[in-house]
């Protein structure tokens, strides 16, 4: 199953989601990058990473997220109103700009979906992670090809997406720190627990094939429930940080000098005889 936003009913003032051709283009682009850097992730991982950025407490810009996803993790230094420096993994500035364009359009579509009030969510405009039932795809291959692939660990439904989401959480821990409010902290923990559950393998009894309804079962009912819980968690996490707003850095007051210390004003007198009087 390859859930995309290409056929969704348009949300007012929202950019279109990526269509099938653009998703294929992204896959090819990432494959090109992978030819020069093996650690480049699959698009499903990128989509989970992107969703976590949308849900993050603080807006995180491309100068931070692009090198974390496709580079060495070091924040790109860029002056205001200037283009981003070219990451070494890209063959050209045009290739980097195209990736950012597609990535940004998917970001905006995800944000619009996650910001919909409960009463306005429908099957057509709801949030759909970019995932694929890889095990079902492999099961549909000829036996010889399938045997070659089955030697490797094949990810479960949503597993790579959830790993991408948690990769972003782990690399911006200050934006995912538990708030002081106990109810909000519980809300956060339950949401992240639902995402983490999806990072685990599907060990339940397969009951459905999401790639071919007539093919062998590859996904368990338990996994489908976990997948639904992860989608609900994305809504909840987005709403939580939107309601709380950005973190406020506390300003620490400098400690006052002791009564018999020299006064900090520079008068030469003891504090108790000067400003502390």
TrEMBL record:
InterPro entries documented for this protein: SEC_C_motif (IPR004027), YgfB-like (IPR011978), YgfB-like_sf (IPR036255)
SUPFAM superfamilies reported in the protein's UniProt record: Sec-C motif, YgfB-like
Matching NCBIfam families: ygfB_yecA (TIGR02292)
PANTHER family: ADENYLATE CYCLASE-ASSOCIATED CAP C-TERMINAL DOMAIN-CONTAINING PROTEIN, UPF0225 PROTEIN SCO1677
Name listed for the protein in its UniProt record: Zinc chelation protein SecC
């Amino acid at each position: 199953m390859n859930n995309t936003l290409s056929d969704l009913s348009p949300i007012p003032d929202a950019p279109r989601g990526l269509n099938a051709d653009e998703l294929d283009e992204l896959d090819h682009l990432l494959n090109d990058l992978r030819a020069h850097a093996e650690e480049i992730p699959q698009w499903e991982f990128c989509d989970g990473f992107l969703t976590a950025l949308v849900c993050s407490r603080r807006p995180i810009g491309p100068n931070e997220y692009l090198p974390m996803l496709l580079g060495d993790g070091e924040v790109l230094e860029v002056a205001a109103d200037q283009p981003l420096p070219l990451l070494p993994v890209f063959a050209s500035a045009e290739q980097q700009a195209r990736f950012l364009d597609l990535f940004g359009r998917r970001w905006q579509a995800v944000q619009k979906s996650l910001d919909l009030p409960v009463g306005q969510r429908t099957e057509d405009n709801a949030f759909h992670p970019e995932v694929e039932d890889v095990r079902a795809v492999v099961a549909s291959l000829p036996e010889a090809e399938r045997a070659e692939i089955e030697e490797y660990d094949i990810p479960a439904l949503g597993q790579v997406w959830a790993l991408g989401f948690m990769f972003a959480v782990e690399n911006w821990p200050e934006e995912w720190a538990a708030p002081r409010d106990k109810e909000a902290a519980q809300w956060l923990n339950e949401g992240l627990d639902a995402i983490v559950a999806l990072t685990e393998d599907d060990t339940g009894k397969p009951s459905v094939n999401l790639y071919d309804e007539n093919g062998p079962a590859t996904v368990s009912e338990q996994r489908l429930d976990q997948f639904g819980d992860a989608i609900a968690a994305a809504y909840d996490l987005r709403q939580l940080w939107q309601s709380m707003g950005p973190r406020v850095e506390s300003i620490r007051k400098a400690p006052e000098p002791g009564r018999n210390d020299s006064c900090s004003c520079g008068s030469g007198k003891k504090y108790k005889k000067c400003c502390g009087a």
